[in-house]
Backbone:
């Protein structure tokens, strides 16, 4: 990658970051044709080990001082300890693991969103994780590895304020959550822009890559583009690589979801495997309910006036209202700060964040969609934070986070509205030598039309259910909409899935399945 596109930043972290970009793109292309299985993993890992020694990349580790080496080692131990806990983010069970299972067994499947709408995302980060899930990382802890790489970057670039972010990111290290990579990578790109990195072509490409992992990061490619136009010398060549990544992102989404950007039903090109409009409508209504933390029904929200809609969002029960208020206050204060400073780069960052915030507030104003804004604002305001202060803040915050992970009753008691805390399992001695993972593997098998599928028994998610598997909630939505997913070719799953209207007999069969699910849930 460096020989073709130049360096992102010098040092071992720069090489690894470019490797992440290269592997993710290569494996995304391969996933259209083959599973990202152990047969893909073996040659790539072997090549990586070969070049690591052939190019003597290990010598770059000796560039750190003895003191910094001890600090990096200590921080890495904190990361490894924190990442060894049981996964607790619900998306791990309903989205991350099922996606990786499909990728390792079949690759990218056309119209997979018809089976389970969530699978239509098929994040590039999960393609990257799938490529290491055979024997290198069977516990799916690639986020912990990225956090260690992030630590190398911080010490190589002496961007000490970023040490303060690691403790918060420890909460995302037990799962292959896309939130961690997009936050860490966006802060790295932001730091490169602020410190004067002039490789705009690579910066723009990497920013588009981050956007393709999670489209709510739209502010970053906007920022790099604005910097190219107003600070650096603009040239169309700077956008070529990034546009190619964007095209790959659109093609991947069209293949799995039927539209260019998940989960937005915009840019309809008339593909036969796009999801049923009624299912998309239900999903849209659910997103609006999530905006209000599921504290109101969709009908109640529809009756809100513009004033009451905003007021209710600020006055939700629990911690969410505090986060929402802090978000708006932070944006206002940062806008004032940018106006006072009158520095072009800070103004462009502010404009980019405001554009992103408008999109999020208009679509689904959930705190998980704008959490990155807090990191960016803190980074800019405290960019000159010293090494000692950053290390002290890191140490104190890490002890707090590790305490919460080890003894979650603390957060359950003091912040009961922080729902993920209810799913933290606490410290188990076995995790000190083997990361904790759940095993369930209880399911029932059904058939409707030409689709034979599995549903997890007594549990809403299919993380440990053989594929093809459908979440019980989507089965109910499908049947109530009078449709059901079907194979295009029953003998070749890779050819994809579509939806079709249920015949009277199929509808009776499907309703029997729903009754079975409901009776089981009782």
Residues:
């Amino acid at each position: 990658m460096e020989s073709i596109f130049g360096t992102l930043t010098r040092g071992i972290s720069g090489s690894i970051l470019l490797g992440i970009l290269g592997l993710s793109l290569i494996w995304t292309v391969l996933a259209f044709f083959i599973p990202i299985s152990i047969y893909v993993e073996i040659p790539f890992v072997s090549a990586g080990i070969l070049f690591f020694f052939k190019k003597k990349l290990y010598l770059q580790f000796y560039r750190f001082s003895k003191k910094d080496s001890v600090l990096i080692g200590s921080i890495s131990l904190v990361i490894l300890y924190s990442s060894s806990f049981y996964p607790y983010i619900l998306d791990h069970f309903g989205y991350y693991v099922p996606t990786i299972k499909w990728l390792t067994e079949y690759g990218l499947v056309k119209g997979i969103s018809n089976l389970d709408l969530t699978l239509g995302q098929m994040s590039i980060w999960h393609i990257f994780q799938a490529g290491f899930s055979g024997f290198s990382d069977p516990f799916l802890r690639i986020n912990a590895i990225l956090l260690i790489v992030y630590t190398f970057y911080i010490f190589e670039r002496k961007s000490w304020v970023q040490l303060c972010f690691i403790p918060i990111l420890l909460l995302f290290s037990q799962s292959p959550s896309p939130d961690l990579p997009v936050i860490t990578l966006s802060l790295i790109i932001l730091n490169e822009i602020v410190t004067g990195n002039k490789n705009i072509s690579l910066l723009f490409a990497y920013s588009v890559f981050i956007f393709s992992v999670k489209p709510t990061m739209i502010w970053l490619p906007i920022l790099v583009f604005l910097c190219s136009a107003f600070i650096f010398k603009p040239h169309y060549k700077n956008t070529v690589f990034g546009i190619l990544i964007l095209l790959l992102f659109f093609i991947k989404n069209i293949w799995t979801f039927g539209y260019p950007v998940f989960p937005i039903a915009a840019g309809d090109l008339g593909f036969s495997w796009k999801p049923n409009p009624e299912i998309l409508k239900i999903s849209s209504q659910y997103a609006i309910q999530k905006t209000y933390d599921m504290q109101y029904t969709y009908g109640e929200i529809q009756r809100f006036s513009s004033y009451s809609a905003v007021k209710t969002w600020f006055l939700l029960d629990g911690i969410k209202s505090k986060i929402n208020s802090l978000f708006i206050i932070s944006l206002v204060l940062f806008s004032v700060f940018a106006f006072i400073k009158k520095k072009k780069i800070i103004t462009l960052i502010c404009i980019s964040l405001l554009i992103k915030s408008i999109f999020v507030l208009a679509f689904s104003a959930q705190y998980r969609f704008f959490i990155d804004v807090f990191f960016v604002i803190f980074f800019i305001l405290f960019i000159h934070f010293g090494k000692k202060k950053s290390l002290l803040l890191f140490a104190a915050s890490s002890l707090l986070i590790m305490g919460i992970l080890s003894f979650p009753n603390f957060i359950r008691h003091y912040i009961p509205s922080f729902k993920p805390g209810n799913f933290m399992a606490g410290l188990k001695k076995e995790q000190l030598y083997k990361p904790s993972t759940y095993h369930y593997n209880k399911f029932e098998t059904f058939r409707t039309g030409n689709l034979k599928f599995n549903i997890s028994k007594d549990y809403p998610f299919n993380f440990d259910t053989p594929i093809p598997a459908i979440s019980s909630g989507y089965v109910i939505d499908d049947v109530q909409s009078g449709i059901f997913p079907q194979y295009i070719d029953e003998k070749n799953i890779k050819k994809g899935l579509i939806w079709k209207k249920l015949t009277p007999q199929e509808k009776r069969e499907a309703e029997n399945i729903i009754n079975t699910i409901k009776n089981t849930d009782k």
In short: DSSP finds 22 helices and four strands in the chain.
